[in-house]
Amino acid sequence: MGSGSPANSSSSDEDGDTEWRAAIDSIASVGFGLPQSNGTATRESRDAHTGEEASQKSGLKLYQVKAQKLLDEHLRKNLEVVRMPDLHINQDSSLDGGVIRLFSSAPPGITLKEDLKIVQNKRPRILPGEETDEKSKKFKRQISSVTVDGTQVIALAKEAYEKSLARYKAKEAAAKEKAKREDERVAELKKIRGEMWLPSIAKQMQEEARRK
Question: CA-CA distance, 55 to 63, in Å (whole number)?
Fold first, then answer.
């Protein structure tokens, strides 16, 4: 009895492994919807012992290791990893028109204006114009209209100063003449009417008489 039990347990383990291998082989033959060749199934059966060793090392069960290998194989055959350049920054800036946004849902804020540099690749085309005769009256008149003669400006300024000074002197002389006529008129009235005829200046006249 004692010697038969280990044999029975080992036979049951082998039967379980055989069932799991049959299940894994059936999955491999289906291949997640992709046709598999006989060579692939044979290779899977040959890798069974390797799977057992991996399961013992990783602590996983045999069917888990098998399933992981099948999944890795399927992904390696059907997926292609492509490394794309990071272009989202340039795309966003082109779509936004160079607008700075504090948050993605925020309205446009500061607008960055692009520096538009005018590059002149060709020389400017200068069309031929009329020939200018420097000795003509028209040319001399045009030159005189835009030029300034320093001596002429000084002469005009001096003339304007003299006119202003003459007007000032004439105005001052007229004021003095008017005051003189007024004094003569008052003196004549004093002789005719006496000093009491004008009360507003009587006091002033009395003070002047005392001083004399």
Answer: 9
